Amino acid sequence: MTQRIEDYALIGDLQTAALVGKDGSIDWLCLPRFDSAACFAALLGDEENGHWRIAPKGAGACTSRRYLGASLVLETVWETRTGKVRVLDFMPQRDEAPDVVRIVEGLSGSVEMAGTLRLRFDYGSVVPWVRREDGHRVAVAGPDSVWLRSEPEVKTWGQHFSTCSSFTVEEGQKVAFVLTWHPSHKPRPSLVDPHESLDHCLQDWETWSSKCRYQGPYRDAVLRSLITLKALTYAPTGGIVAAPTTSLPEDLGGVRNWDYRFCWLRDATLALSAMVSVGYLDEAAAWRDWLLRAVAGDPADLQIMYGVAGERRLPEMELDWLSGYAGSAPVRVGNEARCQLQIDVYGEVIESLYLARQAGLTPERHAWNIQLSLLGFLESKWREPDEGLWEVRGPRRHFVHSKVMAWVAADRAVRTLEGEPSLRGDAARWRAMRDDIHREVCEKGFAPARGTFTQSYGSTELDAAVLLIPRVGFLPPDDPRVVGTVDAVRRELASGPLVRRYTQDATQVDGLPGREGAFLVCSFWLADALRMTGREKEARELFEQLLGLCNDVGLLSEEYDPATGAHLGNFPQAFSHIGLVTTALALTGQRTAG
């Protein structure tokens, strides 16, 4: 492992995504979907597990890189002793098959380039058979087939089960490579013109980005976060994956390695709110529709996450042939946390559908019936302990955040009926439920001696999730219990701008060894809470410190290690970017949904 997590940049086609390192190597790519098996898995092992590098011969990290305008086209530049060259990496939105396009362009002088394509299907475990056909290198193994061509044609040769190339670009010269995946039993897909694809890709992204209504002082960071959220959207269904990667560690060298290539219901409320607030109603509607399809069925079977098309079975397994990023093993695919009971998701689903209705999205007739079913189940379930927002793998507890979100479910149902009394439902019953939950949380979830809400009933531990209490309206921001909670979290869980999810000794909470870094979305929550409790200047200073944690192309991971200054966890992380957008909107006085 030679690249830090923050050394990677994202490219994608709205159905899958790849990570490109500063050294010009694509070290992670799953085809054809976000949750498919990777054909480049060096990120979680080494080069023998698959990668594709194009760079000046003998060069290391690039001189500079950026995204072109408001797009997902990555420009990587090297200045060498003999000249200057750039590589443009992108994935055009597909008509049929997924393509990765890499265009090498000489900017000055003359630069000798070297390429190595090492395909390894099934997460780096299967070496394909490679042949030449119609000017292509064709790699086939089982269900997978990848075709590689160049324009103009570049000489390639096989070496150590890899396809190598060497060529020179002069100033003004361009060499394009196109890698295309398709099922091995089907005919070769139609060829794409790499240069036309570049023009179309730039135009598509610029058109999409121009619809952003946010015009505040943090526009560049907000727009990059929105582009990232769009890139993490599976276009055929509207689902948004939490991240395009699996098993990037929360604790370097440890076992806290999880697969995030799925759609979490907990992200639904904040993602939908962020999209609506900046004018992306089509995306919000697509996410709402995905949500309705995913949660349809018996409310007792509601999961905390689903596959990109709403799949329910996400079996977890370990890939023992991969050593893990920086030796962080095991590498996992699938996620058994889907089976957990998390009371908060019922509130998050109902809040999402409430926000959609408030935003004026065309209502779905069956959406209210689904909410009635969820409310009926929650009415009998909210008093039970659960695994909580953070998916702890320790014993169930009465997590305060879970109870607060159950209150949100009842509250939003009451508000909906007050606004549309013609809808079927028992507002009086839900008011009573809302009052019962509120009373219990204030009695059992608040520690008067410390002046703060705690992580769970009877616990002395804190939890950053209680920062959301004023945001969801459970208590007003000026309530002394809210102010005391914000101060306690800041005092005990924060280090500068960085906030941990919970206690320093995470083992006591989640039953897993090791420690994790600061959870970035919690840091944005603290900025929000400071603003809401009247500390605008402090909130703004904290937010601007957090912006400084973005990598050189504006991306954030799940966590940050304050000791080493390194990003941790899956990357880039939707939750972190949602937090950035929401806080920027609040600090600049722009109305947020809900």
Describe the structure.
The chain has 14 helices and 28 strands. The mean pLDDT is 93. The protein is α+β, with helices and mostly antiparallel strands. The protein has a 15-stranded antiparallel sheet that branches. A 3-stranded antiparallel sheet has the order 26-27-28. Helix content is 31%, strand content 22%. Helix 4 (266-277) runs antiparallel to helix 5 (281-295), helix 4 crosses helix 14 (574-587) and helix 13 (536-547) packs antiparallel against helix 14 (574-587). The protein starts with 7 loop residues before the first strand and ends in a 7-residue tail after the last helix.
Low-pLDDT runs:
none
Helix percent band: 25-40%
Overall pLDDT metric: 93
Strand composition percent? 15-25%
The number of helical elements comes to 14
Shape type: globular
Number of strands: 28
Class computed from helices, strands and strand pairing: alpha+beta
